[in-house]
Write a structure and sequence with these properties.
Layout (H helix, E strand, L loop, with lengths): L5 E2 L20 E2 L10 E2 L2 E2 L1 E6 L4 H14 L3 E8 L3 H8 L4 E5 L5 H22 L3 E4 L3 H10 L3 E4 L15 E5 L14 E4 L16 H5 L7 E6 L11 H14 L4 E5 L4 H10 L1 H6 L2 E2 L7 H6 L3 E4 L2 H10 L3 E3 L7 H8 L4 E2 L4 H6 L17 H19 L6
Parallel strand pairs: 1-7, 5-6, 5-8, 6-7, 8-9, 9-10, 10-11, 12-13, 12-15, 13-14, 15-16, 16-17
Antiparallel strand pairs: 2-3, 3-4
Helix pairs in contact: 1-2, 3-4
Length: about 400
């Protein structure tokens, strides 16, 4: 894989082109075993287009891409320039066409932005000629694929996210804890995988203690990782910002504590540096100047406080005490973790001091061995869908 990403800025308008002949079922030729040999189309490996729509999707898709390539598939990768996607692509060494950006908090601009990005993705989709498109919530990819006749899989792990309306993917993948019918009207085309989204990539994690040295933190210091709320997301509730501010004030009372804050964007980072300049100057609050391995930072933290779902669930997956200041609609995954004592929900300002426990975490040399059932299930379902598409005998039709 290349260690650079390529930022592509197509023209504003793009002509919709009819689907490639390679998408026709008549051209499909299946090798005897999809698990060990690639499925072929006219002697060439099948091609899957993955579109990365947000920062957490970069580490999530890494093992999926690697596993698909091991099985002989070709993977084409695009991404949206939003939050820290580009920095993470570079950090993980993914070669990718970066197309489109974030279009702000307005619902109108979000809709228009998705339509614009869809038009920008068309030339890339035509060039890739994929046999299947895969994303974790990319609405722009769905629009393009519906226009070009490309089969789609959309993954979700938060049932209260904005739906694409009447345009739905051909298949939907969700964690098994999300209720039937929560994400799609087509229950028969909704496939569930065991565990959580984070179980796809957390099992491959290996700790690296040099992260503490890089951040200027001594081994014996108490470390808290904080993730601010997603203030530009459609589901944002201003109460989350109040909880975040109170958490920082509470942590600042302990002079031996180091709070590592991971802003979601350069804009949010500038605001935090302005509003909390005194804590930064005192060394109580650290804001990394470059992207860090989030899982590694979480592992070497004593606790995590986050306004976003992914970091909360990553901490829960690693067995690190985690407190959620998210105040949007609580999804089934977070409810499941809270019921099982793996996540503490903070609902009011008074909960900050009442529920957060400043207790040093006893950590092992490495996380417990975890299975790869989630990853295996997802890959097997992707292969099965491609087989069914080629044989025109889909079990979901």
């Amino acid at each position: 894989m290349s260690n650079r990403y390529v930022c592509v800025k197509p023209p504003f308008e793009a002509e919709l082109i009819s689907p490639s002949p390679a998408l026709s079922d008549d051209n499909c030729k299946i090798s005897p075993s999809a698990g060990s040999s690639p499925m072929l189309v006219n002697g060439k490996a099948r091609r899957i287009w993955i579109d990365i729509d947000n920062s957490p999707h970069v580490p999530f898709f890494l093992p999926i891409i690697e596993e698909l390539e091991k099985r002989g598939f070709e993977v084409g990768l695009t991404a949206r320039d939003t939050y820290q996607v580009c920095e993470l692509l570079d950090f993980f060494g993914l070669s990718c066409d970066v197309i489109g950006r974030h279009y702000g908090t307005s619902k109108v601009f979000k809709v228009l932005g998705n339509c614009l990005r869809a038009s920008q993705l068309v030339p890339t989709a035509v060039r890739l000629r994929p046999h299947l498109a895969l994303s974790h919530g990319s609405r722009a990819q769905i629009l393009v694929c519906k226009a070009l006749g490309i089969p789609t899989i959309m993954m979700h792990d938060y049932e209260h996210s904005t739906k694409t309306g009447f345009i739905e993917p051909d298949w939907t993948f969700i964690p098994e804890v999300i209720p039937d019918g929560a994400m799609s009207r087509g229950v028969e085309r909704t496939l569930k995988y065991p565990g959580l989204k984070e179980d796809v990539y957390v099992p491959r994690f290996r700790p690296n203690p040099t992260i503490l040295t890089t951040l200027g933190i001594a081994r014996d210091e108490f470390v808290v990782t904080l993730r601010p709320p997603a203030t530009e997301a459609h589901y944002h509730n201003p109460e989350s910002e109040q909880l975040f501010a109170e958490a920082l004030r509470f942590l600042a009372e302990n002079r031996k504590l180091r709070a590592v804050v991971l802003p979601r964007s350069a804009r949010q980072g500038a605001e935090l540096r302005r509003d909390w300049a005194d804590l930064i100057a005192a060394g109580s609050m650290i804001m990394p100047s470059a992207p860090v391995d989030g899982l590694n930072l979480i592992w070497f933290s004593d606790l995590v406080i986050s306004g976003g779902g992914t970091m909360n669930r990553e901490a829960a997956a690693l067995g690190v005490p985690v407190y959620s200041i998210f105040r949007g609609k609580i999804g089934a995954v977070d409810k499941y973790l809270a019921r099982n004592g793996r996540l503490t929900l903070l609902e009011e300002v008074k909960d900050i001091r009442a529920k957060i426990k400043i207790v040093r975490r006893e950590r092992s040399a490495k996380p417990e061995n975890r299975d790869r059932l989630a990853l295996t299930n997802i890959i097997d379902n992707i292969v099965s869908i491609l087989e069914d598409k080629c044989l025109a005998t889909s079990a979901h039709a």
